[in-house]
Fold:
Amino acid sequence: MTVIEKAFALQSVPAFADLRIQDLTAIARVAVHRQFAAGVTAYATESFLKELVVVVRGELEDTHGFPVPSVLGVASLLKDRPTSIDLCAGAEGAECLLISKGHFFTIIHQCPEIVRALVQQGRGAERGGRIEPKHPTEDALFV
Structure:
């Protein structure tokens, strides 16, 4: 993916949708593109996510087959918490952009509005503002 393709892919994710194009382009420059084939375990239980994972196409699912939020790894990066379940690519696979821990901290420092968007996602803003989790493991993935 080119930087421009990554920027537009990021813009399609609700947590990044309201960022300025300059901010999206800066994030896109440091994001690493990664694809996971359908059914492949992207991250195993108890693994530490060493990057912010932004699903831009397809989806990642938990071990129960529930789709997980489009942005993962906040808790792992901020609190050194491992994942509580396996994260597998869905039926169509998953195309992700990975943002390293160091770049994640730079982004939240230089672009504080992303923090608000990530918190809203964690509270269910992608589902019309509902605060309860979509499934029992969702809070463990994000918080």
The CA atoms of residues 46 and 82 lie 5 Å apart. Residues 21-30 form the longest helix (10 residues). The longest strand covers residues 87-100. Residues 125-143 have pLDDT under 50 and may be disordered.
